[in-house]
Amino acid sequence: MSGADGEGSDAGDDEKADATDDEKADATETEPGVDDALAALEAGFGLKDERRTGWQLRGVDDPESVAAHSWGVCLLCLAFADDAGVDPDRALRLAVVHDLAEADTGDVPTRADPADEPVCAAEKERRERAAMADLGAPFSAVAEAWEAYERRDTAVARFVKDMDLVDMCLQALVYERERRYDPDGTFDSEYDRLDEFFATAEPRLSTDVGRRLYDRIRATYDALVDERTDGDGTTD
To answer: Which residue has the higher pLDDT, 20 or 194?
Structure first.
């Protein structure tokens, strides 16, 4: 029987709360798939440290990570989805996972000359699909979004791909403006400065908004380079 001050009732409530907490803890420990999900997320977090290889090849000082690039693509998608006439939420889903496989495969740069590619397109796809078999397995939404981006058979996926390319060009402009590399340094390319990044992006653009953004960024980049180059083509 409870005392007049209700101490007995409080004690009973405390015991019930403790039991509920224990049950929740047991459920968390035994819930199927949690460990696999956390392991996949931990592996995916490797994108935070995976540097974008193209910038490294060009000698850019402290280049962005793949995760930073993905954030840039997301921001571009949010900013221009309405202009493109696509669902911004759907675009963000695809953008945030579009390079997830690179947490396992590493970043493979696209070169203007296919002969300079470190691996062929078919092998790159095989490696990325193998990586996503693990990274996307615990999360059906992640796997579905990545696959939708790879198929490129919707307006949203094509828009996200264009924002992926626009992000690269905008980042090239940032590095040029900040002088984050030696324009006269040794680089295995026929292109000067950061021109190859624009050369690889342009033929792959497929949307009006992507083309419009590319043209504006390229014009700004070219004007900046012209300001820093003497009439005989030497760097100032």
So the answer is: 194
What string of DSSP letters covers the chain?
---TTSHHHHHHHHHHHHHHHHHHHHHHHH-TTHHHHHHHHHHHGGGGT-B-HHHHHTT-SSPPBHHHHHHHHHHHHHHHHHHHTS-HHHHHHHHHHTTTTHHHH------SSGGG-SS-HHHHHHHHHHHHHHHSTT-HHHHHHHHHHHH--SHHHHHHHHHHHHHHHHHHHHHHHHT-S-TTS--SSSS-TTHHHHHHHGGG--SHHHHHHHHHHHHHHHHHHHHTB-TTS-B-
* CA neighbor of 39 nearest in space, from 146, 117, 136, 113: 136
d(CA 201, CA 197): 6
pLDDT tens column, 171-203? 999 999 999 999 988 777 789 999 999 999 999
Q: For the whole model, what pTM was predicted?
A: 0.83
Compute the average pLDDT of residues 89-101.
98
Residue 28 structure tokens: 């968390």
pLDDT at 186: 74
